[in-house]
């Protein structure tokens, strides 16, 4: 069977003879410790991240000061206030973790002659070299032009979290989309109840703001909630589908040949969220413990 031109060029790229280690300078000495925070200095991503937090704070303001505090039913205000603020806190915590967690970056500039010799490659064994960051690229890693690094199991680069979604932070990104979708749905439900209440009562008594200002604030919140509910719900469903099928967004887009062993959907979920299943799956503060969930199982 003949291989396509794309496949032939990929085979050539994988041959160790084409690594050209002499073109790679030794990697710069590390001045950061492993505990230092990961942060991408990208203007667009930083702006998108700030906008995300501002929109959540705007929703907090409208929910608390326009709808809940003026409400006559104290129990209604306490329950919905605690639920909304709890979900919003988890959403922002998940966003922070997705943004400031190393997604699985490959050490930069390690494709040197000394490092390649230290791998002790067997005859016929092939490795990848990224020509952009001069790194030995592991299987299922791809180069991100924004992060300027090769990322293990890179799904995509998301400007809203100013980071790549990869092997180490996919859990936090999924939780971020889930919690944003939940607070969007919750805010839309509260706006609907508030409009019904205000139509039945005097508009001046249903909010501490003037009736025109109250309507404008609620309409803006409806627009924001509906937009983010649709967007994050689609992203959440897409991510869960990719995790269950153990195929990243880039691998689906490029239609890359599947060389890794097929696992059950439940085991694929454990690889991302941790092994075994626990309430820690829903916590952005719990680092996934893979345990028996093998990250890489390749067909030989």
Give an account of the 3D structure:
The protein has 300 residues and is mainly alpha-helical. It contains eight helices and six strands. It has a two-stranded antiparallel ribbon with strand order 1-2. A two-stranded antiparallel sheet has the order 3-4. A hairpin with a 4-residue loop joins strand 5 and strand 6 (163-165). Helix 2 packs antiparallel against helix 3, helix 3 runs antiparallel to helix 5 (170-200) and helix 5 (170-200) runs antiparallel to helix 6.
Gist?
It is built from eight helices and six strands, in the order H-H-H-H-E-E-E-E-E-E-H-H-H-H. It is mainly α and 300 residues long.
List keywords for this structure.
6 strands, 300 residues, 7% strand, disordered N terminus, mainly alpha, two-stranded antiparallel ribbon, elongated, two-stranded antiparallel sheet, single chain
Average of pLDDT:
83
> N-to-C SSE series?
HHHHEEEEEEHHHH
Q: How would you sum up the global shape? A: elongated
Secondary-structure class: mainly alpha
Strand content: 5-15%
Give the strand tally.
Answer: 6
Query: Which blocks of ≥5 consecutive residues have pLDDT under 50?
Result: 1-18
Number of helices: 8
Largest sheet: 2 strands, antiparallel
Strand order of the largest sheet: 1-2
| Percent helix | 40-55%
The span between the termini is 20 Å
Rounded to an integer, what's the Rg over CA atoms? 24 Å
């Amino acid at each position: 069977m003949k291989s396509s031109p794309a496949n032939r060029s990929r085979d050539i790229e994988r041959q160790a003879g084409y690594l050209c280690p002499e073109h790679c300078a030794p990697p710069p000495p590390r001045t950061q410790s492993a505990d230092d925070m990961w942060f991408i200095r990208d203007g667009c991503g930083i702006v998108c991240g700030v906008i995300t937090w501002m929109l959540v704070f705007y929703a907090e303001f409208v929910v608390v000061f326009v709808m809940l505090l003026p409400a006559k039913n104290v129990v209604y205000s306490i329950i919905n206030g605690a639920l909304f603020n709890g979900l919003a806190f988890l959403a922002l915590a998940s966003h922070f973790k997705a943004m400031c967690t190393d997604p699985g970056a490959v050490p930069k500039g390690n494709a040197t002659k000394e490092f390649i010799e230290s791998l002790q490659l067997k005859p016929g064994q092939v490795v990848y070299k990224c020509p952009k960051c001069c790194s030995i690229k592991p299987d299922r890693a791809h180069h991100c032009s924004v992060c300027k690094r090769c990322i293990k199991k890179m799904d995509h680069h998301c400007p809203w979290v100013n980071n790549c979604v990869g092997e180490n932070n996919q859990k936090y990104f999924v939780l971020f989309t889930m919690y944003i979708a939940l607070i969007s749905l919750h805010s839309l439900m509260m706006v609907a109840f508030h409009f019904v209440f205000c139509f039945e009562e005097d508009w001046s008594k249903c909010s501490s703001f003037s009736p025109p200002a109250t309507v404008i604030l609620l309409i803006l919140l409806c627009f924001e909630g509906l937009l983010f509910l649709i967007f994050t719900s689609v992203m959440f469903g897409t991510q869960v589908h990719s995790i269950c099928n153990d195929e990243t967004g880039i691998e689906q887009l490029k239609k890359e040949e599947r060389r890794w062993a097929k696992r059950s959907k439940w085991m694929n979920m454990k690889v991302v969220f941790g092994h075994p299943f626990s309430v820690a799956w829903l916590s952005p503060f719990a680092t996934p413990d893979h345990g028996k969930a093998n990250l890489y199982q390749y067909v030989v």
